[in-house]
């Protein structure tokens, strides 16, 4: 029913007898009652409330009186009416006079009872936390952990509304013993509450492109870093994991290919990668204009993480643990053994001698034929550096304990977690430990005031070898199998390899040094919410948050010796001294973040069909950072502290920064009968980086929705549950964030002249003096760049949620991206050019998500595939001007796709020397250096020469344009199975150096190069050639075969079984006998199997040499119990 509020003045601060003593003068003839009441309101200051349909029953009023009391004026106005009035504080409430039937109903309602019952699900299991509300009132409660509830002082004729997320609401008539109330699953989940910008909404009323996953689903994946459990679950979310190294195995996440998203945890900006999965209630992503309300850091989308809260009921204790074993998820390149290495080395020497075609130089072979035979038959040993350094399995284990519960006034959630993750090195020198805690408490201070206090903390302790894992992987790949790991196989003396390194020594912190990183994080969020008494539905909310991050890094590189055995003297001589001198690098970083928010929030339903909500918010954030580093070298290795180092070559550095932002947010939501939906929003934001006059910007957004299924022509359709059309548009500013390494980072304060100090050094006499230079030209016009985002979407649900689909098409245009103007300046100019807002780009794509769920007998299943396609194209791109049409074709990237690779088009391999002699010249020496099996390239311009003018677009870039995933869930009685598939396509990988050329820079070779072009008799240059997959082996390499071409370009499309989880939940009848609430045992696998054309390296690893710690497959056995 529509409620009209006549409100021209906020209620006075006090109610006193003076108000009632105010005099009222009225002179009206046959005037409508509402007009007379308006006059009374103006003279008295009282608020007048009435319903339109009630006022329609009023009779005209005739009155002519002066200086009468308020009471007398009202009595005269209502003396001959079918209406009456009531004064509540400073409010005059107009209502109908109750008739006899109503009076009797009121009399009956005076009989109050205590209502008790139990809420159960479709299988008869209790539903703790279900809501029970007396219809038409604010009286409510929730069921306890056994599904039971009790309500006192309830009228006999009251109606109760029972609700639970994921289930349809149910109405029941009140009585003292309701017994069990069974709820039916709501398959469409339209009543699910999802987290949106600065609040929550029912899924049915959402007009933006927002996706959400429950924390319970993420917790099923036994991952150390929560980012690795997100990939494949949500459309629009792209995640790439480059490494499996403990403590550094997080995925790079973006939304729709836009770039790094802003992360909000419980309403404040924060990092979430190391949050314990059991702390998370839900994970949402805002992908379109709905992110605009978060301001200048939200141009690339927003990730919203909501942690768990307490529930009403007795304390519930939950304990989770698992123990798992890690090993390489994909096959690492197989290296040649000693026999293959020796044979290919000789073959490469012969081919190099033939290629050089210099008879004056005698052929010199690295190995004699006898040695080759002895290595091949095992007489001489072959050393496996890879398996000597890496173990087959590395343990990972996890424990978590949390408690939740509460009363109607106080609710709490407490959580502690522990993770231990080992590495694959046999030396056991890498280990990551993490400790988490969280305390979320909310208290109802009185009927209007609620307080919340969320405290959380993490301690991360990472221990590693002194050198990086990338360097270790590179060393293992390069070490020759004919070089021993230990000198004379004596384990007391590590040997020097062909690359003057020893990977076993590199991984051992007791030999080569160590790295230590300790990260301490604390977060506190305090929030007060006050329901304002004078306007129903309006509340004020104040939030203060403080976060502190301290990172301590200590990297000690220890000098050590590698040996060789002198058989004649029976001695172990030093062959090489590594890491000389020993050195220590200490780096400490400190960061404080503070945020304050104040908001007014309003939500009200008028006349049952007009749903209105709004938000006004002020936000201010401040960040203080400091950094300090010091470096020293050592003569002695037994004391690894800075004071023990020598003064030579010592150095130190430090910095600090203060950052502040503020913004104003407004949101307005309206829907009519859940059918027509609109959301308007704005953000007025400020940044500290640019000149006054350009610091603030106004960024609006709008989204609309039409739930077509609510129209009369579809409302009673038994097939269509939901059919919603959505559209949104928004403008967002971006100041490039605070990452100085970002591509569009705005350098602060470059609108004023400045200097760089120290910058460059100068020698005066014998002294080295640090120099000072200008920071460059200023640009007072520089401002943030702007993103314009549009989205159109369609949501469909059929047959009571059994089949669903959601599709979105999006487009983002960015203008004013940063660039430095390309100009030729004389060296005497003395200054660099400033940043300007010159460039632009646009990104477009689509998303599709399908869902199907059903119950067949005792089997329940659901399957949900999703797909995201996104591609970016340059707008204007500032670059050096091209001087020719060819240069413009190859080098001008304005209005070109960004995700492309240029190179040569390989058209096969030369089959004979005759074919080489008649082909276009591609070695600049009339093809005299080419051999059969060498790569042949296409002469695109037909000039008979293969050179840079023949380069063209040969493939996609290294970032996937197409991401896809599939979630499968099956339940049968107590058994459950979850499978997550994830993959990517439309991208390429290009592997180089050791992955492309045997013996690159004196390294070992890959075993796959045995499938190469070679002579039948490798020692006879005139012997016939035998074809193979790869070009012939060349000790010194072949420039021709190393050109960037399609021959080495890999289609990196892959499909990965990302997670498999199989468990059994014990029946309550069994476990309740031993005092347990729940019990589940499971086995889970992460990165189980990968289907890809790339066989020798993980397709998610970047292009290049492949020197990354490999992704890990993890099989774990776990237990979840509750009390």
UniProtKB/TrEMBL annotation:
<dbReference type="Pfam" id="PF13715">
    <property type="entry name" value="CarbopepD_reg_2"/>
</dbReference>
<dbReference type="InterPro" id="IPR039426">
    <property type="entry name" value="TonB-dep_rcpt-like"/>
</dbReference>
<keyword id="KW-0812">Transmembrane</keyword>
<dbReference type="InterPro" id="IPR012910">
    <property type="entry name" value="Plug_dom"/>
</dbReference>
<feature type="domain" description="TonB-dependent receptor plug">
    <location>
        <begin position="204"/>
        <end position="302"/>
    </location>
</feature>
<keyword id="KW-0998">Cell outer membrane</keyword>
<dbReference type="InterPro" id="IPR023997">
    <property type="entry name" value="TonB-dep_OMP_SusC/RagA_CS"/>
</dbReference>
<keyword id="KW-1134">Transmembrane beta strand</keyword>
<dbReference type="InterPro" id="IPR037066">
    <property type="entry name" value="Plug_dom_sf"/>
</dbReference>
<dbReference type="Pfam" id="PF07715">
    <property type="entry name" value="Plug"/>
</dbReference>
<dbReference type="GO" id="GO:0015344">
    <property type="term" value="F:siderophore uptake transmembrane transporter activity"/>
</dbReference>
<dbReference type="GO" id="GO:0044718">
    <property type="term" value="P:siderophore transmembrane transport"/>
</dbReference>
<keyword id="KW-0732">Signal</keyword>
<protein>
    <recommendedName>
        <fullName>TonB-dependent receptor plug domain-containing protein</fullName>
    </recommendedName>
</protein>
<keyword id="KW-0472">Membrane</keyword>
<comment type="similarity">
    <text>Belongs to the TonB-dependent receptor family.</text>
</comment>
<dbReference type="InterPro" id="IPR023996">
    <property type="entry name" value="TonB-dep_OMP_SusC/RagA"/>
</dbReference>
<dbReference type="GO" id="GO:0009279">
    <property type="term" value="C:cell outer membrane"/>
</dbReference>
<keyword id="KW-0813">Transport</keyword>
<dbReference type="InterPro" id="IPR008969">
    <property type="entry name" value="CarboxyPept-like_regulatory"/>
</dbReference>
